[in-house]
Amino acid sequence: MSNVVSKTTTKLTAVVENLRGRAHWSVVHGLPRVMITRMADKGDLQAKLVLSTSRGDDDLWDLVEEMRAQGPLFKSGMAFLTADHATVREVLTSNDFRTGIPGRTGVVGTIGQALAPHALHPVEPPSLLVTEPPDHTRYRKQVMRVFTMRAVQRLEARTQQIANDLLDQLEAANEVDLVERYCALLPVTVIAEILGVPENERSRVLEFGTAAAPSLDMGLDYRTYREVTDALISFDGWLGEHLESLRRNPGDNLLSQLVALDDGEDGGLSEMELRSTAGLVLAAGFETTVNLLSNGIRLLHDHPEQLARLKADPELWGNAVEEVLRLDPPVLLTGRMAQADTTIAGVPMRSGALVTTLLAGANRDPKVFTDPDVFDVTRENARDHLSFSLGRHHCLGATLARMEGEIGLRTLFERHPELELLPGATRRTTRILRGFETLPARLS
Q1: Residue 419 to residue 176: CA distance in whole angstroms
Q2: Domain with 168 in it
Q3: Is residue 340 within 8 Å of residue 351, measured between CB atoms?
Q4: Does the keyword RNA-binding apply (predicted)?
Q5: pLDDT, tens digit (0-9, with 9 covering 90-100), for 127-140
Q6: Structurally, how many domains does the chain consist of?
Q7: Model-level pTM?
């Protein structure tokens, strides 16, 4: 009898969770998805941008220029929008704004949070992406030590060794998918070592990160939503086990240092804060760098004259990475919400107004960059791009990403100067992160 009751209870729980999941999807993704499609049909530029990126289309840049023609800041049906370099800088550094995700604020956001699955989410508190001081300051302080310039310099030799090892494993291969065999494995190996993830667990971390990447987006179809939710729940469970393992057997890594701190006046993190921060650092530590590497490979392959410049002057490799970040950034945009009535670029807006800052558009602002659509590894102000955002939410891992990008790209093209990309490359269909899902190549 008890077995029957137990099975019935399990089935009822599954039914309730399924209904809860469908209700959450409807509020957070289903309704916005319908609205976005209707708005795009009526010509709304931001809605068209969302649909374009979700298809992996490369008509992105035509849309960016249409947006730029509207002025430094204009109102779409979804939010205020800017592709202007100066305006993006102003919004990202202003204390009048905080992080804001369309569909996750106001009444809709409150309902969505009430229905949300029981798992940590990168755009839900206490994630670093959506918290503000004083909590954000405290979380950021805990992880800053591993991303300082000095700490990253200590990782250079190990990163070079990892790149060499990965390419050694490809020596016998002729045709490979560079995303799968190189772009993904290099940064995930580096961040896994930083965070004390055992070698036999790294493939799981890579799977979790890939599956959860669309979690930053809005308007997901139900199938993708379920895949993302399942990945986040699995990742949350795995992360809890990993942190417990580090408590029992601490090592010389960032997470061991974080779990050793008590929650309290010394600035330690609570269990939820620890898991949220650790999860974000782990996933963000390789997802965007995969995009940087794949975008860079495509640009350098398609511009052999720029590769020739790098061969003639290897000191330019660091600047080449900045130019890749400028011209084809791993993160397309970020959102902010006004905390008070304010005026930006001469446009008044009320408290609660959403602003989408198009980082990719600011990076091609002709007022800042001469011939902005041209790939030039010698560009003197390439580093003026905004691909790592600005202000208190400036990317924690910017220094690490730059180092991995330089070593990863330089080593690949030094080892395989005749590398040839093959037909069949596909863009990721994520709407905020931009990179390649597949990048087939012939190495020799």
Answers
A1: 11
A2: 2-442
A3: yes
A4: no
A5: 888 888 888 888 88
A6: 1
A7: 0.90
